[in-house]
Structures are given as structure tokens and as C-alpha cells.
Amino acid sequence: MYRAALLPRLAVTLLAAGTADLARADIYSFVDGSGVTHFSNVPVDGRYRLLLATPPENRATRPQNWLGKSAIFEPLIQRAARSQAVRPELVRAVIVVESAFNPRAVSRRGAVGLMQLRPATARRYGVADAFDPEQNITAGVHYLRDLLTRYGNNLELTLAAYNAGEDAVERYGHRIPPFSETEHYVPTVLRIYRSLLAQQRTG
């Protein structure tokens, strides 16, 4: 799960609380002439720019290159984002960190798919098949919209709740819960999000 406002010396295991165990690798992205954002851990195109650097000790394992297929999900992301008035860049950032665009990703806690829906979240949004990219993205973006509304468009709290759950955010007085995973997850997604916004402006 990844970004471009480089996380210099990122000594973070990129896992979301209920997310897939993401294999570590540098991640690159670019926006093409049609406005489609492409991701890859294999930057074969000269337009790719580093989005997320992982530390050297984590580079031994390379993920299956689902990232290279990320563009096939772009219409789903755009449609869901438009429907819920959520920035598509935020959706992409969450997907990068949650699953690295692997629609078959499964976490140790049972969260599945592109946006790593937990079983309770999938039920809440009427998802019949959480591995189905369209259902997964539609529900995940709807959940993001509900969290943004709940927390007054505060991105930090929204992402903390997406990662650790709303109860945890409430329990810690509307603050990011002091869980190491969540404390890494929130700034990671935000850095990717801001980098993608910057790319979109200049792409």
C-alpha cells in the first residue's frame, strides 16, 4: 500500500488493521494523457516516478505485479468516487496501501479485496461478493464517505477509523488510536494521497 511524497527511510510495515499483508517493494506511478493513474513496482515506462520507497531490508520480496494492472480499475474508482463525492486520489491511495491493487488480497483478520473490507463492513453495505472489484470499491468508497461525514471531513480521523475502526477512534477521544499500525497507516495514505493530487495537477 503506497505513495510518492517519498517516505524517506520508511521503516514501516505497510499493513492495515484488517488489511492484506502487502509485500514490500518500491512503487511507482504516473498519470497518462487521459488522466488515468498507473502504478507499478516495475517502472518500464519512463514516465513513472517513485511513489513509495521501502527500506532496503524489505526489498527481498517482490509482489505479484497487480499494480501494473491498476488502470483496469480506474473506471470503477471514478464512478464510485463521483457517486460519493470522494476524491478519486484518496480512493487510489487507500487501495495502494490496503491491497496494492490485488482484488484477491486477504488479510490475517479476514478483510478482503481491493479496499480490504471486513466482513461486518461488507454486510453493512450490502456486499454479496467482497472479492468482486466493483462491489468492493463501491462499498469501500461509501464507507469512506460515511467516515468523512462522521468526522467533519477530517482525513486523519477518517483514515484512522478506516484502519482501526470507529469504536477505537471514539474510545481515544476522537484522536488517532495509539496503535503502531494505525499511526503508520494514516500518514502513509495521506502522503500518497497528496502526491497523487500533485501528479494530477501536473500530469
Describe this structure in words.
This protein has 203 residues and is mainly α. It has a single domain, classed as Lysozyme. The protein has seven helices and three strands. It has helices at residues 74-84, 88-99, 119-124, 133-150, 155-164, 166-171, 180-202, and strands spanning 27-31, 37-40, 49-52. Strands 2-1-3 form a three-stranded antiparallel beta sheet, with helices on one face. Strand 1 and strand 2 form a beta hairpin. Helix 1 packs parallel to helix 4 (133-150), helix 2 crosses helix 7 (180-202) and helix 4 crosses helix 5. The radius of gyration is 15 Å and the shape is globular. The chain starts with 26 loop residues before the first strand and ends with a helix. Residues 1-24 and 55-63 have low confidence and may be disordered.
Rg for CA atoms: 15 Å
Q: Report strand %.
A: 5-15%
Return the average pLDDT rounded to an integer. Answer: 82
User: Which fold name is given in CATH as the topology?
Assistant: Lysozyme
Biggest sheet statistics: 3 strands, antiparallel
Helix vs. strand class: mainly alpha
Helix/strand order = EEEHHHHHHH
Give the tally of structural domains.
Answer: 1
Secondary structure: helix percent: 40-55%
CATH class: Mainly Alpha
Core attributes:
7 helices, disordered N terminus, about 200 residues, globular, 3-stranded antiparallel beta sheet, Lysozyme, single chain, about 5% strand, about 40% helix, mainly alpha
